[in-house]
Amino acid sequence: MTDAPHDAARRSPVVVLASGTGTLLAAIIDRAASFDAAFTVVGVVVDRPCPAVQIAADADIPVVECILQEHPDRATWDTVLADAVAAFAPDWVATAGFMKILGPAFLHRFGGTVVNSHPVRARERRQQRGVADALAYGVKVTGTTVHLVDDGVDTGPILAQRIVEVAPDDTEVTLHERIKIVERALLPEVVDALAARGVVTDGRKAHLK
Ligand code: GRF
């Protein structure tokens, strides 16, 4: 079986939200550049000046800054953010190191189409919210979870997970960097699968088609 290249005109439009160094954004852009990609990155929205802006600019992708402090309150910012994303008319929104919680207005507009990568595997343990928590808990394996975004914090239906082993001498920095290597492969893969085939959800259970 060979993969047929997707007609560029039919590639699913994706908006990426980012706040940080943008390495996940770069991985998504790289995947979109492959001949058989099912999606194209039509816009990037950031909530602060950050290296992700330059990564998007280098790829000729329009960037919009939507900064919380420039708005009277969080609800207004959330609506402005939703408007900024809506202007790109995306099928899917990927949060790639976006360090703000999406609010009700945003999720009302885009609920069910937002995918996030979270750098911890065992989300069933609520005390393990992040890499530092997982290390402090003494886990021997952790990993990454790619999930749909709902109105909780990293609680939406899980789309894919990968395991990363914890080394005895790991620090938060070294462990997070190894997890990010896995995230940079997994998140673009999931975005591509969503764009190509979509997802079926049944309560907490989600299956990529
Ligand atoms: C990733 O680990 C992501 O899961 C977390 O922040 C990191 C983003 O890194 N929320 P980068 O900004 O893409 O390099």
From TrEMBL:
Keywords associated with the record: Purine biosynthesis, Transferase
Assigned GO CC terms: cytosol
Catalytic activity: N(1)-(5-phospho-beta-D-ribosyl)glycinamide + (6R)-10-formyltetrahydrofolate = N(2)-formyl-N(1)-(5-phospho-beta-D-ribosyl)glycinamide + (6S)-5,6,7,8-tetrahydrofolate + H(+)
Domain annotation Formyl transferase N-terminal: ranges: 14-191
InterPro entries listed in its UniProt record: Formyl_transf_N (IPR002376), Formyl_transf_N_sf (IPR036477), GART (IPR004607), GART_AS (IPR001555)
GO molecular function terms noted in the UniProt entry: phosphoribosylglycinamide formyltransferase activity
UniProt pathway annotation: Purine metabolism; IMP biosynthesis via de novo pathway; N(2)-formyl-N(1)-(5-phospho-D-ribosyl)glycinamide from N(1)-(5-phospho-D-ribosyl)glycinamide (10-formyl THF route): step 1/1
Any one GO BP annotation for this protein: 'de novo' IMP biosynthetic process
Top-level taxon of origin: Bacteria
Keyword Nucleotide-binding carried by entry: no
Listed EC numbers: 2.1.2.2
UniProt similarity note: Belongs to the GART family.
Descriptive protein name: Phosphoribosylglycinamide formyltransferase
Gene that produces this protein: purN
